[in-house]
Specification:
The complex is a heterodimer.
Chain A: H1 5-15, E1 18-23, H2 27-38, E2 42-48, H3 50-58, E3 68-71, H4 75-87, E4 93-95, H5 101-108, E5 123-129, E6 136-140, H6 150-166, E7 173-177, H7 188-201, E8 209-214, H8 216-220, H9 222-227, E9 240-242, H10 246-258, E10 265-269, E11 275-276, H11 284-296
Parallel strand pairs in A: 1-2, 1-4, 2-3, 4-11, 6-9, 7-8, 7-9
Antiparallel strand pairs in A: 5-6, 5-10
Chain B: H1 5-15, E1 18-23, H2 28-39, E2 43-49, H3 51-60, E3 70-72, H4 76-88, E4 94-97, H5 102-116, E5 124-129, E6 137-140, H6 150-166, E7 173-176, H7 188-201, E8 209-210, H8 216-221, E9 241-243, H9 247-254, E10 263-270, E11 273-276, H10 284-305
Parallel strand pairs in B: 1-2, 1-4, 2-3, 4-11, 6-9, 7-8, 7-9
Antiparallel strand pairs in B: 5-6, 5-10, 10-11
Helix pairs in contact in B: 1-10, 2-3, 2-10, 4-5, 6-7
The chains are: A alpha/beta, B alpha/beta.
Chain lengths: 305, 306
Amino acid sequence: MIRTFRDILDAAGRKGAKRIAVPFPVMDDLRTLSRAAAAGLAVPCLVGRPEALRSGIGRTPLASLDHEIVEESDRRAALRRAVALVREGRADILMQGGARHRALLTAVLDPRSGLVKKGRVASYVSLFPLRKREKLILVTDTYLNNHPDLVGKRGILENALQLARLLGLDVPKVAVLAAIEQVNPGIPSTLDAAVLSKMGERGQFGKATVEGPLDIDCALSETAADRKGLKSAVTGDVDIYLVPEIDTGHLLAEALVFFGNMQTVGAVLGTAKPVVLNLPFVSGENRVVEIALACLNCGDGANHG
Amino acid sequence: MIRSLADFTRLAREKGPKRLAVLAPEDEEFMRAVKEGWERGYIEPVLIGNAEKMEAVAGRVGFDIGPFEKIPGTEQQAISDLGIRMLFSGELPIASKGQIPTSYIYRSIIREEAKAASGMTVSVVTFWEIPGIDHLVVFTDTGVNIKPDAKAKAEIIKNAVFVYHLMGVSRPKIAVLSGRRELGGRIASYRDYQFLKKAADAGDLGECEIVSATSFTEIFLGSRGRRADLTEASGEGMPHILVVPCLDTGNVICKLDFFLDVTRSSLVATSRGPVCIPARSDFSDNIVQQLAMSVVLADRMEKEVH
């Protein structure tokens, strides 16, 4: 069972190093990759101008560790090449490197040349370790999808459930969040939540307990739920928080980081291969954990297998 | 200038007791809060509701409600209408919800605002007291408007600015929050920010300033153009008012006090006085805090209006 960021690093270490394609890496990336390579997690495959790359690598421990340089002098070509390396199986993981977010996601989500997986929704999940006990919580979607409809939310939830099971949760507990815990026809998020919850009850998500709509107080606190007369199997011990849309998801993830001083890492799910993004609220230290998480996500039975 | 919940508590002792219409106090946590509000000298309750239930619950929390005015009522919307009408007619300066769904209270307020032709939109301000930040922060609208557009947000801002002016902050800073990221295009909440920023810069929203940050990353780290260093995060530039994109976001974030080290307290500022709207999951100490805030704001509104 994986309960902490340390556990993620350890479990990924046991899987062995994965090849990571990185277009136009910047110094921060090289430092992160050095640490990942030293920990036996990664063999970086750096795509860019060889001279610039060598000079950067020379300033990090990566110089004496296993790595590969693939020549591309143009930034856009480097991105295309990195995606192709991963798609063709010559690398296992794509890392953002110096590519811009929009360019990267456009390349990844291209139906022909990208890393799209048929029948799957690409989504982003943020993981937070709780402080009071050893447990990771998942919040999704915090980055990729703006306003997913019910089908989108189902896909986002399936992705998160798969990751939760990979972390060792046999029956993940899900709170489908909304403004209130009652089903209110005037508040669309409560309707989607109710449907997802019913789908969960019918076993459509496999082994999982899906409760919704839940407001955040009923999700977090048994006493609060009691006061509202709400009985829920997930209250106080939620593994996955599914948010209604991106305003809530992105701001919630940020609020936990900045008001709660919580650590976080994230992962792109639902693509053919793992993709590691640069998000401003993930600390430099935790970027290695993101690589480790991507390593865990490689291969059969994992999110991208 | 009021900077903390303790400021409100201190001032409430000075300015109270004020008459408070209590709408259906039929729950122990709430009656306990009324009792404490009375004992601390904040309020003098006028109890509206089912006499038997109120007596029973008062008995359970050891509160003798014999001396207070009681108005019998059983139907929830009627109780709500009556209490809010008393507030708008000037009979008393504050009202507070007990065991009545908040939507009933909003309905009563909306009707009375329309009758009074105040032009005031009904919205909820939720205060957060955050360790290390030297002023109270408001999230709004956290209660009424499900998916406000930019015009509705302008009214929501005016209400919150009004509250900060009462608190002695002459030019409150506002962030219009959005889930905008590096990708995903200009989502509606960001377009709202652009519209409101222009309006505020042109002076259309009164004495206030809309800052350029729309996310917590920007508030805590400044511009996100560079790779962030989280160790540099600082709440120093924290605005006073955080306008949430929609009701879902507002509720999910403002009630994180169940999880984070912050204290929360909400109310509705109507054109005639504050209305306390404790959540059904709130505990009595939280409700007492809301009563204290209402007493102080009511006192300042009386001075402003008369």
